[in-house]
Specification:
single chain, about 210 residues, 4-stranded antiparallel beta sheet, 14 strands, WD40_repeat_dom_sf, WD40/YVTN_repeat-like_dom_sf, signal
């Protein structure tokens, strides 16, 4: 099978990006990026950017992680754009917009060090974050909006978090020391844990097609 690669030229250096998953049965994917300012670049691109900017969101602090909410969709009315960013001030920010004049921003506080990864559960009921403060935190978005309902203590800095559509209620956490663990998403109870024999571990993810993780 041939590999197809589509390139989009952007006007500034990309620091972070997140790709939305398929929503509402459609196959439309949306991209959210965090750019390095043009004044910081060594040189600017001469070509016109081949993309459509839907809306620009700004924050004062450096963005460290991004994740799309599964509730994001451009094929409904009103349109829904929702995502989470983790910033260098140790806070999470939840952005919601209908791409008109209606936008909201909510800050989640609790981490005491840099946040390395964020993820939503498949139904958009929770957002999960993990940090250099050796914790993985689960935040309620529906029943107790904005509250941290679970605080999982880790052996080392948390580097990755991932949820899976077919493994409801489970959370994969990757630690810098190389340990990969599965937890109950709500209770924080450990299900299994093993050493990847790779340290420092920088990233881990779950395959969307199977319940295998990489």
């Amino acid at each position: 099978m041939d590999t197809i690669c589509n390139a989009i030229m952007l006007p500034m250096k990309i620091l972070l990006l997140a790709l939305s998953k398929k929503v509402d049965g459609d196959r439309e994917h949306n991209l959210v990026c965090n750019f390095k300012g043009a004044e910081e670049d060594d040189e600017e691109l001469d070509d016109d950017p081949e993309y459509l900017e839907l809306e620009k969101f700004s924050q004062k602090h450096r963005t460290l992680a991004l994740a799309w909410s599964p509730e994001t969709s451009l094929n409904v009315f009103p349109k829904t754009v929702a995502f989470c960013s983790a910033a260098s001030d140790h806070k999470l920010r939840l952005y919601n917009s209908d791409l008109t004049a209606n936008s909201t921003l909510q800050e989640l506080r609790g981490h005491t060090d840099y946040i390395n990864a964020v993820a939503y559960d498949p139904y958009g009921e929770y957002v999960v974050s993990t940090s250099d403060d050796h914790t993985c935190r689960v935040w309620s978005l529906k029943e107790l909006p904005g509250q941290c309902i679970t605080n999982i203590q880790l052996l080392s800095p948390g580097m990755s978090v991932a949820c899976h559509q077919s493994e409801e209620g489970k959370l994969l956490v990757g630690e810098k020391c190389g340990v990969l663990s599965l937890f109950n998403l709500v209770s924080g109870q450990a299900i299994l844990s093993f050493d990847s024999n790779r340290s420092p571990l920088l990233s881990a993810d779950w395959s969307s097609n199977t319940s295998l993780y990489a």
